[in-house]
What does this fold into?
Amino acid sequence: MSFKDIFCQDKAISLIQQGYASGRLAHAFIFAGIEGVGKFKTARELGKLLLCKEPVIKNGFADSCGKCVSCEAFEAGTHPDFLHIYKELLEFTEDGKDKKTPKDLSIDVIREFVIKKVSIRPSLSEGKVFVISEGERLNKESQNALLKVLEEPPGYCTIILLCTQPENLFATIRSRCRIIRFGPIAEEKIIDRLHKTGLDKKRSQYFARLSGGSIGDACRWAELESRQAETKLYEICNQLVGELAGCRYADCLELADRFLKESRETGQLWSKINPQTSKTDVSRRTHKTFIRIIISVLRDCLILKVAAGGGLTNFAQEENIKKMSEKETAEQLCLKIGAAYRTMQCVDSNINEKLIFHPLLLKVTSSDTMFVLQSQLSDV
Ligand SMILES: [Zn+2]
It folds into this structure.
């Protein structure tokens, strides 16, 4: 793996390359962008390059050599100067034994795996690289602790924060970091990639559109699709979309049960395929996938309403979506999409799963007056 293998993030990589070539590469970065667009891969490659004993520079493009003792240790996952920090490390902190998978990136993790280690000089390479995943989960205490390191990082340290919502970080943290944006991946590129894994065109297009530019998510769904024995994810999505488009307010709780059931079952398969990912993270991701299906329906209705079609995610359900779209105003659809995104944020805060689909479907299937009432109730 090298910088050249990173998919479609040329702009972000060229900013890093410019900094490297000028000899004034920042000591702290925020890699900002939605999940699954290559932030971690890029941080890893930058780490590998910074730690490499004999970096190779060809036509102004720098990369690790892949052969030195540092690169070998890096590829083996044993490099002592590359530290990946993530919330689940809490279990390995002094008082962390048997603690549940945390919601936040706790101060104990930052203290033990960043602050304590920053002052220890590198042992194999000239530098030391810290990559902090899910920077948006740093709570106030952890941000304050991290800020102290960012104020005066030792010259040999590089800290890379990966973050989906950089606005959640203190302005004082943001101002001390070089922010590199990672944009969504173009639809055709994702389709192409999925198609190469053996997925047919129709499914590739569907998952690419549903992903909103996250190749990581699209590839995960494609993997689920290929591993499911009986009903495939694509069919499940299509059925749910058809039912949602024709759903009456009176039947919406039944449909919410179906969403929850399918989300749980998909999560179980996902856990089997990726046993190293925590169960909480898997269920958070599958719940978000199924909320995204609901958003895709509302978005398709809006496209039919204001843009007269084209580019529908649920192209196989166009007729049903047309009928649903006729019953809604554009304003109402926008409000419902907003409600769905807010539910997505609540999932990130680990709300009880019974409070996800039921309230959301009550809002999504409600009429004009009912929706206003629902919104007022949920704002109380
Ligand atoms: Zn090397």
In short: The longest strand covers residues 157-163.
